[in-house]
UniProtKB/TrEMBL annotation:
This is Poly A polymerase head domain-containing protein. SUPFAM superfamilies: Nucleotidyltransferase (SSF81301), Poly A polymerase C-terminal region-like (SSF81891). GO terms for molecular function: metal ion binding; nucleotide binding; nucleotidyltransferase activity; tRNA binding. Its cofactor is Mg(2+). Gene3D superfamilies: Beta Polymerase, domain 2 (3.30.460.10), cca-adding enzyme, domain 2 (1.10.3090.10). Belongs to the tRNA nucleotidyltransferase/poly(A) polymerase family. PANTHER family: A-ADDING TRNA NUCLEOTIDYLTRANSFERASE (PTHR47788:SF1), POLYA POLYMERASE (PTHR47788). Residues 34-169 form the Poly A polymerase head domain. Pfam families: PolyA_pol. It comes from the Bacteria. InterPro entries: NT_sf, PolA_pol_head_dom, tRNA_nt/polyA_polymerase. It comes from Candidatus Methylomirabilis limnetica. One of its GO terms (biological process) is tRNA processing.
Length: 440
């Protein structure tokens, strides 16, 4: 096993929570050695933050995780079949991209795949065997956690050299056959880090796709990979790469995205960066937005068929299908509409989810409809009547559903610039009642 001069940061340069967690992990595993491994090491070497700390114990990882959970007051989930445990620290935010908030512990192990795409059969093994079983050379590095410091970088497969060259390389010929989810992971890392895929690895990817390995994956495993891709800032580039490699049509023959879909996904990404300044878009789940954008140009029946193949959690499947239908219908009405008053925009946008509003805006490339929607999302959304329920009571209206109808009619008129003052609103209500006009 070769070693390189340590290029990992010193403990004192880590954030306080990571320092505390790593030192506690060393104590929890003692007397067994414990190592930082995989993606955590990779991203430390790249100088990037990682929300997960990956740890390998040459011993009982679940027992160490129980002690560590006690030390850190963390929530623990264990998987005895694989000798792994997941810890979420107090105050952890699942969507946070920076600052370590979770720890994954595993017993050092070797793996055997009984057939293509099977979950592996594992058994305890030394650290070297654990590194040899991994997906890419850049994820096959480790460093022992010593007291307040890392040990030398352990790099038996020249992962550091590949990292310096910006290259993604798998470790053996059957890598994508044993675990076809690595096809998605390769494209994800290529897009995230702007790395290149090694020539031999690219050849193996194409052969695996052509050989039909993706049909062996369950829908839930594929959906999880797409879900992880949708969280990436470079999601549109990654999805395009999967399309070029025929991975998407291998998932489902009708998941053949037209060229326009990738432009739409890029616009979705740009809108997401501005969403915090638009209250009606705030709170949108980025992953759901990207998945909805990917499906947007497909026929609703095709979307249902694809979701059936992917088997996402029931609530997510229903929401994606409903958002897809509502978003497409709203865009069709807007692109055909002559009447683009703000009151009409409000009636179309207000019932939509934040995710659907983002995709709708991305779907309107240019023109008066796009301008009207942008105006509503930027400013008009905040327009409300000056009259309140108490004012309506003083005008002689009995509390009930009519209040909602009156206030909605007032807001529509106000959005269209027909009412400016409280007196205007009062006159509007009284005139409509006097004229016998139904307020709705």
């Amino acid at each position: 096993m070769s070693t390189h001069v340590m290029q990992l940061p010193q403990f004192r340069k880590l954030d306080p929570l990571s320092r505390r967690a790593l030192e506690a992990a060393r104590r929890a595993a003692a007397p067994s050695p414990i190592y930082v491994v995989g993606g955590y090491v990779r991203d430390l070497l790249l100088g990037q933050g990682n929300v997960d700390i990956d740890l390998v114990v040459e011993g009982d990882a679940i027992a160490a995780a129980k002690r560590l959970a006690h030390f850190l007051r963390a929530v623990m989930t264990s998987h005895p079949r694989f000798g792994t445990a997941h810890l979420r620290l107090p105050g952890a935010c699942p969507r946070r991209r920076s600052g370590s908030r979770t720890l994954d512990l595993a017993t050092a192990r070797s793996e055997r795949y009984p057939h293509a795409a099977a979950l592996p059969e594992v058994q305890p093994a030394p650290l070297l065997a654990d590194l040899l079983r991994r997906d890419f050379s850049i994820n096959a590095m480790a460093a022992r956690i010593d007291r307040h410091r890392f040990g030398p970088l352990i790099d038996p497969l020249e992962g550091l050299r590949d990292l310096e060259r910006g290259r993604i390389r798998v470790l053996h010929e059957r890598s994508f056959i044993d675990d076809p989810t690595r096809l998605f992971r390769t494209a994800r890392f290529e897009g995230r880090y702007r790395f290149v895929i090694a020539r031999g690895t690219l050849r193996l990817m194409k052969a695996a796709v052509k050989g039909g390995v993706i049909r062996h994956l369950t829908g839930s495993r594929i959906f999880r990979e797409l879900y992880l891709i949708a969280k990436e800032p470079s999601a549109s580039r990654i999805i395009r790469r999967l399309g070029d490699l025929d991975v998407l049509t291998a998932i489902h023959p009708k998941l053949a995205l037209p060229a326009a879909a990738f432009g739409l996904l890029e616009r979705v990404g740009r809108i997401l960066t501005q969403a915090s300044s638009m209250p009606l878009l705030e709170g949108a789940a980025e992953d759901e937005v990207l998945l909805l954008g990917m499906l947007y140009l497909l026929h609703p029946r095709t979307v249902v068929a694809i979701l059936t193949r992917l088997t996402p959690p029931q609530g997510i499947a229903e929401k994606l299908a409903a958002d897809h239908k509502a978003c497409r219908q709203a865009v069709q009405k807007l692109t055909r509409a002559i009447d683009l008053r703000q009151s009409r925009i409000a009636r179309l946008l207000d019932p939509l989810s934040p995710e659907a509003r983002i995709v709708l805006l991305a779907g309107l490339v240019k023109g008066s409809a796009q301008e009207a929607v942008s105006e509503y999302l930027a400013t008009s959304w905040s327009v409300v009547p000056l009259l309140k329920g108490g004012d309506l009571g003083r005008l002689g209206f009995q509390p009930g559903p009519i209040y909602r109808r009156i206030l909605a009619a007032l807001r529509s008129a106000k959005l269209d610039g027909r009412l400016r003052t409280k007196e205007d609103e009062t006159s509007f209500v009284l005139q409509r009642v006097a004229q016998g006009v139904t307020i709705q």
